[in-house]
């Protein structure tokens, strides 16, 4: 089965991990520090806090933002559930706003229609790798005293109006899962320019531990002393994972170029297929394409999905609208809330896209898809 996404691991990656395994550090060591500095620099941010997953990164970001009971977090339903559940773990109420009909990204106009005095965070998701319109979302958030979180699980390496993803929102989260644009096997990161947000994020991801003596309630204890001013979790990334991430980060530009070439070939080869709607690219976006999402028209999505898989081509649907899941239905969320997102879901299929995908393999995907559609 040809997968819809997979990692690219080479000898340099293996050597980087082996170096850590034969060192004195497996965790809380220099590779984590170096990886965080490198990720912050790549994202154009002052601080980066690495962690165990993209889901953990979202949980950390909402903690840093001070999200809690009584607060509302506005986000998109066209995402993986963690974008919403990370806020709910802190007791917040999630408000879903609809997406732009063409890009799959959170629609700023829909956000503006649902903001309230309880809005604490507006969380956009860079669907497929194309950045959300963060300038517009930030203007809405900051007008009402809220913060922005950019879920950039799909978009490390992308730019928005020439600015790197990581430098736009108050807090940005990355995912380094194997199917993403680069990997640490499992891992994630939170980026911010705000010193106070960085301190809160760092403390939350180290079980709440503070080692800043200037903030201690009992500052006269010995050098062993530390304090826990608020409860956190152990979300630390290990040096083993960080070493793989450092090696992968050095190849990110090559990964981006390859994904761009695959995207362009799909766009050209499928442009004349009337049964498909192809991705739209905003003029100010330079995406690192994590997904190639096509829309299958005429109610044929399930047929096409199943026939592609029968032909040995791994495809996926990204995503089921978050509030369709039973846990959200049980809280009173109902279908029909975000019609653009629901129509997008009914038509979307993600075709195989990853740096190691050969053009011959891509041609097989294209040929099989055209044959199924009779194009």
UniProtKB/TrEMBL annotation:
Residues at the active site: 180
A GO BP entry: polysaccharide biosynthetic process
Lineage summary: Bacteria, Bacillati, Actinomycetota, Actinomycetes, Propionibacteriales
Protein name, per record: UDP-4-amino-4, 6-dideoxy-N-acetyl-beta-L-altrosamine transaminase
The keyword Transferase appears for this protein: yes
Organism per entry: Raineyella fluvialis
Gene: pseC
SUPFAM superfamilies tied to this protein: PLP-dependent transferases
Residues that bear N6-(pyridoxal phosphate)lysine: 180
Cofactor(s) in the UniProt record: pyridoxal 5'-phosphate
Family of this protein: Belongs to the DegT/DnrJ/EryC1 family.
GO MF entry, a single one: pyridoxal phosphate binding
Any one Pfam family match given in the protein's UniProt record, by short name: DegT_DnrJ_EryC1
């Amino acid at each position: 089965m040809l997968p819809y996404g997979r990692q690219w691991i080479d000898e340099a990656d293996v050597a980087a991990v082996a170096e850590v395994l034969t060192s004195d550090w497996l965790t809380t060591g220099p590779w984590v520090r170096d990886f965080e500095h490198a990720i912050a620099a790549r994202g154009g941010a002052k601080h980066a806090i690495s962690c165990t997953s993209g889901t953990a990164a979202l949980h950390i970001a909402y903690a840093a933002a001070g999200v809690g009971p009584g607060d509302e977090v506005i986000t998109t339903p066209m995402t993986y559930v963690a974008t919403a559940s990370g806020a709910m773990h802190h007791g917040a109420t999630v408000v879903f706003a609809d997406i732009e009909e063409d890009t799959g990204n959170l629609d700023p106009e829909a956000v503006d229609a649902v903001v309230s005095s309880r809005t604490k965070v507006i969380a956009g998701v860079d669907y497929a790798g194309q950045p959300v319109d963060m300038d517009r979302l930030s203007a809405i958030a900051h007008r009402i005293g809220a913060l922005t979180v950019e879920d950039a699980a799909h978009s490390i390496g992308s730019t928005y109006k020439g600015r790197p993803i990581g430098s736009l929102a108050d807090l940005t989260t990355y995912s380094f899962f194997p199917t993403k644009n680069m990997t640490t096997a499992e891992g994630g990161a939170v980026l911010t320019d705000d010193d106070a947000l960085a301190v809160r994020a760092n403390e939350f991801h180290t079980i709440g531990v503070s080692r800043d003596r200037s903030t201690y309630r009992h500052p006269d204890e010995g050098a062993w002393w530390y304090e826990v001013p608020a409860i956190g979790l152990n979300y630390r990334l290990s040096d083993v994972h960080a070493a793989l991430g450092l090696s992968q980060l050095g190849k990110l530009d090559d990964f981006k170029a390859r994904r761009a070439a695959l995207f362009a070939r799909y766009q050209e080869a499928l442009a004349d297929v009337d049964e498909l709607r192809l991705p739209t690219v905003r003029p100010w976006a330079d995406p690192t394409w994590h997904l190639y999402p096509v829309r299958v028209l005429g109610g044929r999505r399930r047929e096409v999905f199943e026939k592609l898989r029968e032909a040995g081509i791994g495809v996926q649907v990204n995503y089921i609208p978050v509030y369709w899941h039973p846990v959200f239905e049980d809280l009173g969320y109902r279908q029909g809330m975000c019609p653009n997102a629901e129509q997008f879901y009914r038509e979307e299929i993600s075709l195989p896209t990853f740096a190691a995908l050969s053009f011959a393999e891509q041609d097989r995907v294209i040929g099989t898809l055209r044959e199924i559609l009779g194009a």
